[in-house]
Write a structure and sequence with these properties.
The chain is an alpha/beta fold. The protein is built from eight helices and seven strands; from the N terminus they run E-H-E-H-E-H-E-H-E-H-E-H-H-H-E.
Amino acid sequence: MNMGILDGKVVLVTGAARGQGAAEAKVATEEGATVIVTDVLDEEGQATAKEIGGTYHRLDVSSGAAWRDVAAEVMTAHGRIDGLVNNAGIFKIDGALDHDEDTFRQVIDVNQFGVMHGIKTVSPIMVEQGSGSIVNISSIAGFRGMGALAYSTSKWAVRGMTKVAAKELAPLGVRINSVHPGLIDTDMLGQLGVPIDQMSEAIPMGRPADSMEVAHPVIFLLSDGASYITGTELVVDGGMII
């Protein structure tokens, strides 16, 4: 029987009902982890959990109380959390001159505060264990001004939070890294309203990523194979921002 790189580990993935999060949950399961699927899309989340043999918990990542409840339930069931993928995120098109404050706050609540709550809730559990890995999903929009004000702001923030938390938690046995995907062929890509062929012209590899091409690097960072990697920024973009 082949050993997986996450054998024996308990991994929680946010925004895992579909798309990128579902791919991460699937690969983590294939690599031997016990996976907790979380989302606010209950029907799809339950279906994903059933498909991979995991469990589903409803989690509004913008709520600290919801995070605490889910973490407590996972600890009761499994006694540990070895990996966390802060994947949940939303995308809205806005600009410096035409953004709406309510929409801006909504994006920040999910993309930025969601990651903050995840780190704040789960890292103490990992510190108590003496081990753990957190992967925060940012974006290439966290490196450049990519046109969507709230989204780009949130992804720059994720990059910064990762650096600060990684430095603080490294001596305590907890690793934190950020992953920065480019264009991924998921439902979110369709929100841009630009034909895929046209978008592909900006990518040296000539195409968007399949969600699995992002999931595998994420799962590597959760694994013991990445035991000396923390605070890094892994860009998965087909060369888009070279």
